[in-house]
Amino acid sequence: MTGQDPRTARSSQALIDAMTRILDSSTSPELNVSDMVKEAGVSRPTFYQHFGDMKALVQAATQDRLNATFNATQPITLNTSWAQFARTNFRLMLAEMNKNRTFYINVLRGVGGYTATNDVLEMIANKILDRSPMGPVLRTRKSPVSPLEQAHFMSAGVVWLLARRILDESTEIHPEELADHVGILLLHSAGVSQEDFNTAYPEYAN
């Protein structure tokens, strides 16, 4: 099996980078194929060969940025607590989202909103289940619903909260404060005891 033609990969990435620059530039930008191919330095047939329509390109650009954001998070170690995991990783993620807020506002309000929301939901659910201290708890707890379904449900709440904060341009996002808020909400959603919550966040204990 041969790998992807480097020229094909370059033209695809050029379109993704062009879309990212446009979504970064201003709120509610005009998205059309003519401007996109000019910005990317490729032909219209190349655009349609790779993506077919603008929605697919918005999705690819969003996925590209989300991957970079999530790849910056830290893996858990054996003794990592939930509070350590949440504060470290959620602060990194939220700081990146805040830095690229114009991009996410345009995505959420535009043609790629539903798909982008779904992508974020899936990524957070997988991180909760596979790369957080909460994962083993969800996997071993006896429940009529699957661990993945529980993680999706919890993730949906996080995505809803983040989307509201991002879209409310009058509200400043403070990654450190919001990271604790998200971490606490997820911990409560997991149904931990008051004792376990106090252990995770002693400064918020009654």
UniProtKB/TrEMBL annotation:
Keywords assigned: DNA-binding
Cross-referenced Gene3D superfamilies: Tetracycline Repressor, domain 2 (1.10.357.10)
DNA-binding region: 32-51
Protein's name in the database: TetR/AcrR family transcriptional regulator
Domain HTH tetR-type: residue ranges: 9-69
InterPro entries (UniProt xref): Homeodomain-like_sf, HTH-type_Tx_Regulator, HTH_TetR
One annotated GO molecular function: DNA binding
